[in-house]
Structure formats: C-alpha cells, structure tokens
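Title: Comparing notes on inverse folding

I've been comparing how different people in this forum approach sequence design from structure. To keep things fair, I'm posting one structure and asking everyone to reply with a full sequence. Here's the target:
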C-alpha cells in the first residue's frame, strides 16, 4: 500500500504518481481544476457508479461530465491540493483534498458572488483497468454554500 501525505496540486500529483491508480485518482481532481469535460472519458469507466450523486444528476459518466462542467461554469482559479492519498487493496484509492476557487458564475443555484471559496473533501474510488469504476465522495457543501451566499468580499 502506498500512502502519501502532501500539499501538492492535483496536476503535480498526476506527474509524480507512483502507480496508475494514484495517477488516475489525481487526474480526476485535475479535471475539475481545468474544466476538461472531455477528459472524463480518460478517467471514468462509461458505467461508473457515483454512490453520492447530486440531486437529479445523470448516472454514469454523463453525471461526472455534468459535475465537472458545473464546477467549471461556477468557479475560476479552481485548484485542488491533495493533502493525503492512500492506495488500498482491490484497486481502491482514498484521497483527502482541499479546493480553492473564486465563485464567478452561477453555481448550485447561487449567482456569482466573486467570493473566494475554500473547502475540503474526501474521495474513495475504485480503479479498474485504469479507470474509475466506483466513487464515494463527500464535500463540505454547507461551508461552500455559506461562502458563495455571503455578501461579496471587498477587493
């Protein structure tokens, strides 16, 4: 089992990953940073199971594409830093991450606020044949909602 404690960006972790599973896990977060919806085909199995989908989210890879697009359309300067990752038996990878961004577009029903956001999250994903086949995730959505619904921050 590989365990890494770091504060590197997802892109840095993609380049330095010591296994396919860790590279794919970091690449998943990098898609959110770049807004690369087409990259979902490289990272997710077509029938990926999202065990924690957003309300009314499409299933499979279409749901993952929609999620990436929602972050891309609602935020700029998005950056995920991987705080901890561990490769587990059976193709599983656990990640603890931190996302920072600026809320510059409609997101989760809130119009652009210009506010900076800073949240943490965890992903547990199963990687089969170099693609994510299952994913469990939890994000600080209450904290995110508080940050994007707060009055605009002074420059």
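Reply #1:
Here's my take.
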């Amino acid at each position: 089992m590989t365990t890494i404690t770091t504060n590197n960006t997802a892109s840095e972790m993609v380049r330095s990953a010591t296994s396919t599973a860790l590279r794919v896990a970091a690449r998943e977060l990098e898609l959110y940073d770049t807004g690369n919806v087409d990259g979902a085909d490289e990272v997710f199995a077509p029938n990926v199971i999202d065990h924690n989908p957003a309300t009314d989210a499409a299933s499979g890879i279409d749901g993952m594409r929609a999620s990436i697009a929602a972050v891309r359309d609602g935020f700029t300067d998005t950056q995920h830093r991987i705080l901890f990752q561990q490769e587990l038996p059976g193709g599983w990878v656990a990640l603890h991450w931190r996302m920072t961004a600026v809320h510059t577009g409609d997101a989760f029903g809130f119009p652009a606020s210009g506010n900076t956001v800073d949240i943490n999250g965890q992903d547990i994903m199963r990687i089969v044949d170099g693609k994510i086949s299952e994913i469990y995730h939890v994000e600080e959505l209450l904290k995110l909602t508080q940050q994007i619904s707060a009055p605009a921050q002074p420059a």
